[in-house]
Amino acid sequence: MSRSPKDPQRAEFSAPTTDSVSAVNGSGIDHDLNKNHLQRENPVMAALAGTLDRGRRLFGRPNAADTPTSAFDNTPSDSASSPPIPTAPKMHFTYASGSSPLPRYTIRRGVGIGGFGEVYFAVSEAGKEVAIKRIQRNLDVELRGVSHCLNLKHPNLVSLFDVCRDDQDQAWVIMEYIAGPNLREVLDQHPQGLPEEEVRRCLVGLASGIAYLHDSGLVHRDLKPGNVFDDAGIIKIGDYGLSKFISASRRGGHTESVGTFHYMAPEVGRGEYGREIDIYALGVILCELLTGRVPFDGESSHEIVMKHLTAQPDLEGIASPYREVIKSALEKDPRNRPQSIAQMLKPLGLQIDTFGSGTPATMPSSLGSTSSPAESKQDPILARLASPPAAPGASAEKPIREEPLARAIRGSLTDLARWWESLESYPGTRIAMMFMIVALVVINTGWLVPLLTFVAIFYVPYYIIRHLVLGIRQQPSYAEAHQLAVARAQIPRPLSAGQWRQQKRIELASKRSLTRMTELSGSWTKAIFWTAILGVVGTMIGLRDADLSAENIAPYALTAVTIGFAALALLGMGKLWERGEGEPLSRRLVLAGVGIIVGSFAYVASEYLLLPIGGTALSADVADNLPQNLYTNEGVPRLAAMMAHFALLMGAVGWWKNTDPLRKRRLSVWTVAVAVVFEWAISLALPIPQPWGILVAGGIAIVLQLASPWENRHQEMQVS
Ligand SMILES: Nc1ncnc2c1ncn2[C@@H]1O[C@H](COP(=O)(O)OP(=O)(O)OP(=O)(O)O)[C@@H](O)[C@H]1O
């Protein structure tokens, strides 16, 4: 096993002894003294110091008593027929070439010795080349749940074939043999780091594998370059899942830490093992890939741990946006880190594959956000529920992949945002650019608005149909639904607010399309009912001292019709989106398209009802300053102005939150107020008659909430 000599932790593992207490801190200082000192200063450090003790004992080589008599050096014995292996320091393995400690497998040679045990290159009776890993005798292997790991399938994960016991009841992991080097070896040969292209290649592979693990409810816990292989150009992550089923002495009560100190997140010392620890480790690895050095290094393990807990990483010389990505991944507080791998890599514009299909795809944001890592780590069953594995027999509820056009737009906007941020060093540039952009948009409204209308008219129906079709294709089978129900029953009660939301979201996602359509038609009926009620009440209040003539009623009718039309459209979109928390930017883009349609509808309806909209509402001085291509000389908004206004209103307000069955309250006054304030603010730039606009915005928010289904968490909790 090759480890960098500059690393005290690695040095310890490569030359393990059973009694070298002071070797852990590398400084010769008595370890217990150090631990007492740390305990006074920092309880977390003390916990980690205790971990060092246990880790040293656990990672130590088996005692002589454990070791069978035949031992051999790591010299390739039959290299003619076997894949090449990198040269490694001389190591003493328990089993010799040609021996068969495990029925049906013959050992060819030792590959390396790690914290869990020895790894051998072996062949099966039928000639299948595999790597077999002997789990050290002092580690209890919990075989329950192993099948979950064994059935994971992803091109960026080293395949696990089986876990067996030999006749001495010793556990062995049988896995895919990787002939290529691990990243530790690659990095040792590149002390200045790898070229950017290489870094990105490694990162995509790593991120895809980890995201898939997370989506399958697993946290790797031991990410480090030594566990990542380059298999003829394909990055493969190994050692995943081991920490999950090696129990008792290794991780009893979550008090033992796993992992290598350079890559270990600060909260590991507190026994926290959420996804964020993998995100942290990925940040460290990214830094090392780029620069050849880890962000927190030191003379001793204690120094490294202390830096993880307190120091800011030195990211000098790392270019943007890598610097920002690493910085956020290395936040001390896990809640401040990106909450998913996709979120972490977003600024880099990398595409990752989380489906195990081998086809790169953008990480679906819905999954990343449906399950809060903080909750997943408290409740592994819930984590699994949130992201069921794609393994055979397992529930295969997958998120709908992001629509390609929305993805392209989101990518371009991300690039634009990055460029925008890069302007900060030139004061005033942003303001000047802002004016230019606004001027360009206003000057070009003549052709921009028809173009956007054209796109919206085709895109919105396409988007809806695509979602419906993909949604139908992804209906869970009866067996999958049953499996979900059984797993759900195992979740301890009462659920926290987050857990409840997570569980409900899964139920919403697994709903059948017919149920969804039935619910939608119910919501539409209610929306029409509530719109009519609001219309009547509004008219009665507004016309309490006036004649109920058609001319007077017409503006109220127009308000109600616009509210009703917008509510129907938004309820439809909300139904499509209720299955996940969603990607706000793409939702806003789609809603802007809906807004164009609503604006056109309101304009056409006003013409049809012979009510020149705003003819009396916009004051003369406002009308004078309005662009001619958007407003008439009298200040009446033209079609383009109505489209643009409603596009902004729909895109700016998170309307899907009004229709989300998991919203906090059935009817939130705050949400209504937000819609009204946005309408008012938009009206400052692109006026429409007021209070007509405000009534429409507020009315839509009220009708949406009253018409959408609502899950009352508190009531449900009381019942259960
Ligand atoms: N599937 C595999 N194919 C080829 N080599 C492997 C495979 N798995 C592990 N190795 C090699 O075997 C050696 C020991 O690996 P192992 O995973 O046991 O230890 P480690 O990762 O170095 O430490 P730890 O177990 O503490 O994480 C390493 O050099 C590793 O590169």
UniProtKB/TrEMBL annotation:
PROSITE patterns per the UniProt record, alphabetical: PROTEIN_KINASE_ATP (PS00107), PROTEIN_KINASE_DOM (PS50011)
Q: Where is the composition biased (Polar residues)?
A: 15-25, 66-82
Which part of the chain is the Protein kinase domain? 105-349
Which InterPro entries does this UniProt record tie to the protein? Kinase-like_dom_sf, Prot_kinase_dom, Protein_kinase_ATP_BS
Which UniProt key words apply to this protein?
A: ATP-binding, Kinase, Membrane, Nucleotide-binding, Transferase, Transmembrane, Transmembrane helix
Entry GO MF terms: ATP binding; protein serine/threonine kinase activity
Ranges for the region named Disordered are: 1-40, 57-92
Pfam families, alphabetized: Pkinase
Q: What is its EC number?
A: 2.7.11.1
Transport recorded as keyword: no
Residues the record lists as binding ATP:
K133
**What spans are recorded as compositionally biased (Basic and acidic residues)?**
1-10, 29-40
Top-level taxon = Bacteria
**Transmembrane annotation, as ranges:** 432-465, 527-544, 556-577, 589-615, 635-655, 667-686, 692-710
Q: What CDD domains does the entry give?
A: STKc_PknB_like
PANTHER family listed in its UniProt record: MITOGEN-ACTIVATED PROTEIN KINASE KINASE KINASE 20-RELATED, SERINE_THREONINE-PROTEIN KINASE NEKL-3
Name assigned to this protein: Serine/threonine-protein kinase PrkC
Q: Which organism is it from?
A: Roseimaritima multifibrata
